[in-house]
Design goal:
CATH superfamily of the largest domain: UbiA prenyltransferase
Number of domains: 2
Number of helices: 14
Structural class: mainly alpha
Distance between the termini: 54 Å
Largest sheet: none
Helix content: 55-70%
Order of helices and strands: HHHHHHHHHHHHHH
Number of strands: 0
CATH topology of the largest domain: Tetracycline Repressor, domain 2
CATH class of the largest domain: Mainly Alpha
Shape: globular
Amino acid sequence: MITIWALLKTMRPRQWAKNVFVFAVVVFDEKLFDAVYVSKTFVAFILLCFLSSAVYIINDIADIKKDQLHPKKKFRPIPAGILSKNVALVAAVFLLIVAFGGALLLDTLPHTLAPGLFPLALFYFILNVLYSFWLKNVVILDTLIVAAGFVIRVAAGAVLVDARRFSPWLYVCVTLLALFIVLGKRRREITLLAHQADSHRAVLANYNLPFIDQMIGVVSTSSIIAYSFYTFSAENLPKNHAMMLTIPFVLYGIFRYLYLIHVKNEGGAPDELVFKDRPLLFNFILWGIAAISALYFLK
């Protein structure tokens, strides 16, 4: 029973929320009320959860010595010795078989576009393995690789729902949002670990708070500009530009996060703070309601 609980914890179920990016296309391509496309996307979400969990397990096995030095990660099952590496490895292989097998099955269904879910899932896995063993130690590139994982999730949704009206601007927005999340996490690691940051993650020796904050400033500004362009230039949006009404929610969300880290000193990645900070969570819900209303009901 302890082993099962330890394995589930190592699979990081809390991180599965990141895979909701696969639903971006079914929403913004106006297929939210199509049961076939929604069900395919939901299955893809489950498969991506299995795939990402396998990556987390492999990453924990690779980082066991460094995680033992981390004030929080040392309590994870593998570095703490609660879960053996052999059991974890077998579980990772099983999850990969299910994820890749399910992706191949989904690719045989009608209306699946090339390249298909399986090649994207394989690319995601290879990219993350390279990240775990090498690319995470390359400054700047480490953040871009993690951000690429979010874009791959969106692309996975696109091939499954035969996307026709999904604006390229949204890929730009997802890339920038992903970088915003990744840089927020890097900032948290630096502030949390202080002078021991580079002993846990070697690449952190090449970062400091002024550099991270400057990159966050660039990404946040670019995110606002890119999203604004999307709201009035995408072909499938209402001709009355109702989608522009969602811009204030994006502005508030970014400003609220910057307020939390710079004024309140709360720290943390945006995807974690959104569940802890009620104004941020409420703003996210309102943005979702406004966006869906503009896409489906205000035309």
